[in-house]
Design a protein that fits this description.
Blueprint: H1 2-11, E1 15-26, E2 29-39, E3 44-50, H2 58-73, E4 83-88, H3 93-100, E5 107-111, H4 122-125, H5 131-139
Parallel strand pairs: 3-4, 4-5
Antiparallel strand pairs: 1-2, 2-3
């Protein structure tokens, strides 16, 4: 519990932890979101998907599926659209930009070692933690 509390403090003000490996049933199949948060100030859910490998274009499709499912199955009508963050162990910036082009959802793709692709609107990105903050907390040992 201390680890979760520390992680929430690292994310910044307004984040509430909803679940790890959060289960959703989509079309009679089980889906598991790596990390699901709710941001109290932005009044929306934040889906974080972690990939221990370089970015693949299909990751955007998976994240988009999770955002749609959360919007339809979990989100309250007064909540804002769900935000997605995809954290990978490396990415080809051009490939990531092509994969995101045409999507009108707030999705960001980031290396574990670099900063977010400028995919999220400034007002949303300002309320989210940096990749370094998330990586630091996720790599910290549980107490």
């Amino acid at each position: 519990m201390v680890h979760i509390e520390r992680f929430l403090l690292e994310l910044g003000a307004g984040f509430a932890f909803v679940g790890r490996q959060y289960h959703l049933e989509v079309g009679d199949e089980d889906c598991y979101i790596d990390l699901l948060f709710y941001h109290l100030k932005l009044r929306c859910f934040v889906v974080i998907e972690l990939k221990a490998r370089p970015f693949e274009a299909g990751d955007v499709g998976q994240l988009n599926l999770y955002l749609s499912a959360v919007d339809d199955l979990v989100r309250h009508p007064t909540d804002g659209p769900t935000i997605g963050l995809l954290l990978c162990r490396g990415k080809n910036r051009i490939k990531a930009e092509y994969a995101l082009r045409g999507l009108h959802r707030p999705i960001g793709v980031a290396d574990w070692e670099t900063q977010l692709v400028e995919s999220l609107p400034d007002d949303l990105a300002a309320g989210l933690p940096s990749v370094e903050e998330i990586e630091r907390e996720l790599s910290a040992p549980d107490e």
